[in-house]
Design a protein that fits this description.
With 373 residues, the chain is of the alpha/beta class. It has 6 helices and 19 strands. It has a 6-stranded antiparallel sheet, covered by helices on one side. Strands 10-9-8-7-11-12 form a 6-stranded parallel sheet, with helices on both faces. It has a 5-stranded mixed sheet with strand order 14-13-19-15-17, covered by helices on one side. The radius of gyration is 22 Å and the shape is globular.
């Protein structure tokens, strides 16, 4: 049982690329969301983060055969001087954090990553749409924009639609009110509350029930907007569909979905479709460097992650669905094909091995070599 386990407070041995961080403070944001304030435990400084990025963390949980890797959004502005992770208790890692993590607990972390980042230079309005704990990257974006306004950088106008089940579960009310007060009238809050017993319209919420498509033109009117969405996959897909039905261009909708599901998009008519490599139809040799371990992949063998594990390697992974980016590694040679849509950010020379297989190649083309092993 987790309540019988002690969280580690000494510096762990971490693989290359990981650093030890100490939980400096814990704060309850609502009945279901708890924040963890992280500071480096190795004497170094913070790696830079952009507003909206996430932090890969590595937890050693007794009873788990391997370290548990998860990614949580940094919910504070990049200038805060610490990383704040705001977590809802939903699974093994979040339960461990909620029930065991305390000031002094040591965890591993990689540098912040992700491309769900707001454009702070644009002058036209931004619209942020969140459900539940999906507020976290959008809160970082708001904090960043308001901090710029206070420092003399013109702030782009922002409307936040924030949907929650109940006022008890909704987090960051005081923080959002403080941001609105500092935003010089450029931040509008539209709080949508499903359960309104014991609450007051205007004071506790602007709209009751669920977030409905007609609310967008009612509060936004017409004109150019960029939309930034974050929440559970069904919510994300519904909002995306509503915006597309209202005529919003696909290129104006930026999204960060929870869990393994990626947003299913309908491209703009003028947007060309990029050609993609196709999976190999025969046996392929895959080499894992620097050990030189070789494996023979054939259709039906699964992903490159599964191939590596079958050879006794232990790559990092999190969601195993192409959403978190924990499994990405360098592609030294060759080409891969993806068998599912992925949402994790990665460079052209990086591979999300949980969702990739060797690509079909011509005579003389190099086989796949991965910097893993």
């Amino acid at each position: 049982m987790l309540d019988e386990i002690q969280a580690p407070t000494s510096l762990p041995d971490l693989p290359p690329g990981w650093r030890p961080f100490r939980i400096a403070r814990v704060a309850d944001e609502s009945s279901v969301i708890r924040s963890f304030y992280l500071e480096p435990a190795d004497g170094g400084g913070l790696d830079p983060a952009a507003a909206g990025q996430h932090l890969p963390i590595r937890l050693t949980i007794p009873g788990s055969d391997d370290p548990v890797i998860r990614t949580y959004t940094i919910s504070c502005a990049p200038v805060a001087g610490y990383y704040r992770l705001s977590v809802r208790k939903l699974g093994l890692a979040s339960t461990y954090l909620h029930e065991l993590a305390a000031p002094g607990t040591i965890i591993g972390a990689k540098p912040p990553a992700g491309d769900f980042i707001i454009d702070d230079q644009a002058a036209h309005p931004a619209v942020l749409v969140a459900a539940g704990v999906g507020i976290t990257p959008l809160l970082a974006m708001l904090s960043h924009l308001v901090a710029g306004e206070g420092a003399g950088r013109p702030m782009r106008p922002v409307t936040l639609f924030y949907a929650a089940r109940s006022i008890e579960e909704r987090g960051f009310d005081a923080e959002l009110a403080a941001l609105a007060a500092r935003a010089s009238g450029k931040l509008r809050l539209v709080r949508v509350l499903q359960l309104t017993d014991g609450t007051e319209a205007g004071r506790d919420y602007e709209e009751s029930g669920f977030l409905r498509s007609e609310l967008f033109p009612r509060y936004l009117g017409f004109g150019r907007h960029d939309f930034y969405l974050c929440g559970p996959p069904p919510f994300m897909q519904a909002v995306y569909g509503a915006l597309r039905a209202l005529g919003v261009a696909d290129s104006a909708i930026h999204a960060e979905a929870f869990g393994p599901a990626s947003l299913i998009r309908t491209g703009d008519a003028a947007a060309p479709l990029a050609s993609r490599p196709v999976a190999a139809t025969g046996e392929e040799v895959v080499t894992f460097n620097p050990t030189g371990t070789q494996a023979h992949w054939k259709p039906g063998d699964g992903s490159l992650l599964e191939l590596a594990e079958a050879k006794g390697l232990k790559p990092d992974y999190g969601c195993r669905e192409g959403a978190c980016g924990a499994c990405k590694c360098k592609l030294v040679a060759g080409q891969v094909a993806y068998f599912r849509e992925t949402s994790a950010a990665h460079d052209p020379d990086e591979v999300l091995i949980c969702s990739a297989v060797p690509a079909s190649r011509g005579v003389g083309s190099p086989a796949v070599v991965l910097a893993l092993g």
